[in-house]
């Protein structure tokens, strides 16, 4: 196992440990030595993992005091992605909040895309729709095509920072999206809504595009609420 893989695995194990033990913000965590013994790994691997978590503002290391868990709202978006990559499911409340942020960002993004998109952007979006249509016809999941579509809209804004932020949200929801797009009817509905959004972007109609994106994400939020209720039952 390479150094990067060891560090990634160690980070995942620490995050899983924190969640499983229900540590509260500002609570002191086990020492570097104790963590190394618990996970049967080297202190250098633990030190590297803790440095990453500190950079992402998940933990705070205080000289001569110890390691402390930060408030979750102080951590970076990348920390949420790390949680998801570690196999830790987001709570229903966290999913709802993530969808709310997506709606704020993507509705404005599609407005910008209407004025900034190029012919190449439009061609790419149409190709994604063609690929989506082929999978819908076979009643297959469009999980990857859906992500490509939404990121394609954001790319058309020509705002690299926005692309990075929105991409983080999609990476964060990777596991749950597999479940969401396992329903063929849901895939078909998303495809039809995507087509309407692209039509508005092509026509450079920002109000129509924003309205359609808002309706699309509202429908998505409603489906998620129902889906999470079913899985919690």
Automatic annotation (TrEMBL):
Domain of life: Bacteria
Span of domain HTH gntR-type: 4-72
InterPro entries: GntR_C, TF_FadR/GntR_C, Tscrpt_reg_HTH_GntR, WH-like_DNA-bd_sf, WH_DNA-bd_sf
UniProt KW keywords: DNA-binding, Transcription, Transcription regulation
A molecular function (GO) term: DNA-binding transcription factor activity
A matching Pfam family: FCD
SMART domains: FCD, HTH_GNTR
PANTHER family registered for this protein in UniProt: TRANSCRIPTIONAL REGULATOR, GNTR FAMILY (PTHR43537), UXU OPERON TRANSCRIPTIONAL REGULATOR (PTHR43537:SF5)
Protein name: Transcriptional regulator, GntR family
Source organism: Afipia carboxidovorans (strain ATCC 49405 / DSM 1227 / KCTC 32145 / OM5)
Source lineage: Bacteria, Pseudomonadati, Pseudomonadota, Alphaproteobacteria, Hyphomicrobiales
């Amino acid at each position: 196992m390479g150094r990067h893989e060891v560090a990634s695995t160690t980070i995942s194990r620490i995050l899983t440990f924190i969640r499983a033990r229900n540590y509260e913000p500002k609570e002191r965590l086990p020492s570097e030595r104790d963590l190394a013994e618990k996970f049967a790994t080297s202190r250098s691997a633990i030190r590297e993992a803790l440095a990453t978590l500190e950079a992402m503002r998940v933990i705070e290391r205080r000289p001569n005091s110890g390691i402390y868990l930060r408030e979750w709202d102080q951590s970076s978006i990348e920390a949420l992605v790390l949680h998801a990559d570690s196999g830790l499911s987001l709570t229903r409340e966290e999913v709802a909040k993530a969808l709310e942020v997506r709606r704020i960002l993507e509705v404005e993004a599609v407005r910008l895309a209407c004025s900034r998109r190029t012919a190449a952007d439009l061609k790419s979006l149409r190709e994604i729709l063609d690929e989506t249509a082929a999978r819908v016809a076979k009643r297959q999941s469009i999980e990857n095509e859906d992500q490509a579509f939404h990121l394609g809209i954001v790319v058309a804004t020509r705002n690299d920072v926005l692309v990075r932020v929105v991409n983080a949200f999609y990476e964060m929801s990777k596991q749950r999206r597999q479940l969401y797009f396992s329903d063929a009817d849901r895939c078909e509905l998303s495809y039809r809504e995507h087509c309407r959004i692209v039509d508005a972007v092509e026509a450079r109609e920002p109000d129509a595009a924003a309205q359609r994106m808002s309706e699309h994400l509202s429908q998505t939020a409603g489906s998620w609420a129902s889906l999470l209720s079913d899985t919690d039952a």
